[in-house]
Design a protein that fits this description.
By secondary structure, this protein is mainly β. Helix content is 11%, strand content 46%. Strands 1, 3, 4, 6, 7, 8 and 12 form a seven-stranded antiparallel β-sheet that branches. Strands 2, 5, 9, 10 and 11 form a five-stranded mixed β-sheet that branches. The protein is globular.
Length: 213
Amino acid sequence: MKKTALYALTMVLAACAFPRTPGDGDLLNATHNFQPELFSSGARGQVIVSLSDNVSDDGWFGKNYTDGIAFKNLQSGEVFFLSTKKGVRDYDTAMLTIGEYEVTNLYLQYVYTTTSSAGNTTITTTHVETDENYQGDCRIRFTVRPGRVSYIGHFDLIRAENRVGADGVALRNSFKLSDRAADIPQKQRDKWRRMFGVDFDVAPAKITNCGGR
């Protein structure tokens, strides 16, 4: 499902404005703040994820999408978000409460701005295009363990782009989950080791209820 949202910001012509990107919520920012005391006490665990897609182009004229994953804590119902972007950020991490989590949305998001003038006023509009639910009917779950750093895998988001299968049925957007821990550069591993105080484990998310996928 593709959705487009518009956010208009008005400013005086000579003024400077930096519109906040929708989706950068306080809940997301809070999970990015590593708290060593909570982590070492066993009250929190850390997850690492990587994502990519088959349509992003970080060239001058291309669309470079943010690849996102939303997931909820099955005990509390709280929803969290992590994201990566080609050429900008290869991995994302979150410090979370202990328990089981389920993915609620795998999505692509493209954010851009346009400007228009009305007299001495410039109107800057932020456009947000979101293509959602690449997980389809699949149930994707992972577990956060006390004092552990877990790499839950790499998600490839695959846009069908009007493709048709051999049976003539239109293909749906989909995803693939793989273990790409071996591809993580040593420099990145060392950075996480200094930050978290422990090495990460490889604990890929579990996928069920996907039918023939």
